[in-house]
Amino acid sequence: MSVASPGSPERPRTPRWYDDEAGPVVRPYAMTRGRTSSASRHRLDLIALVVPEPAADDPDADQLLSPEHVEILELCDDVPQSIAELASSLDLPVGVVRVLVGDLVEDELVHVTRPVPPAELPDVNILREVINGLRAL
Q1: How far lies 52's CA from each of 31, 72, 121, in Å?
Q2: How far, in Å, CA of 48 to CA of 31, rounded?
Q3: Closest C-alpha to 97, from 110, 107, 106, 88
Q4: How far apart are CA 62 and CA 21, in angstroms?
Q5: To which H or E segment does residue 63 belong?
Q6: Which residues pair with 111 in a beta bridge?
Q7: Which residues pair with 50 in a beta bridge?
Q8: Do 67 and 30 form a contact (C-beta atoms < 8 A)?
Q9: How confident is the model at residue 85, as a pLDDT?
Q10: pLDDT tens profile 24-66
Q11: CB 83 within 8 A of CB 45
């Protein structure tokens, strides 16, 4: 911090982009190494479930992962979590979580189960006809 000399006007302090209570701040682009998408060929919807693979229990894998990757694996260990749940639990933007989960998919530490697209769901009318046919038996 500079001290103003007598008789010179004091320079205004430059505002800091963080406060003392926040602690160290890591920008999202630093967590993703500047990437906005992962190399994963999977589309990671908000409701897609992240399920850990058996290889995720390997202690050597933790040494190669960032703290955020490890935290995702820990959150999914007991119960599969959706991308939205992970973003909320980690307090990170969804885009960052998608990149991090994509990294884990590429490393075969997790797999992602996608929701069934609406076009592939059975037609309601067909289901009603099946029910009516079963009742007729």
Answers
A1: 20, 9, 27
A2: 21
A3: 88
A4: 29
A5: helix 59-64
A6: 51
A7: 81, 112
A8: no
A9: 92
A10: 556 665 666 656 566 666 678 888 888 888 776 666 656 678 8
A11: yes
The residue written with tokens 């885009």 in the block is 95
C-alpha dist (Å) from residue 88 to 81, 94, 134: 11, 8, 44
Element (H, E) at 3: none
- Give CA–CA dist 50/71, Å, rounded: 13
Q: How many residues does the chain have?
A: 137
Can you tell me the distance from the alpha carbon of 37 to that of 56, in angstroms, rounded to the nearest whole number? Answer: 22
Instruction: Tell me the sheet residues that pair with 51.
Output: 111
Q: What is the pLDDT of residues 44-55, one digit of tens each?
A: 888 888 888 877
Three-state secondary structure string covering 75-113: HHHHCCEEHHHHHHHHCCCHHHHHHHHHHHHHCCCEEEE
Average pLDDT, the chain: 75
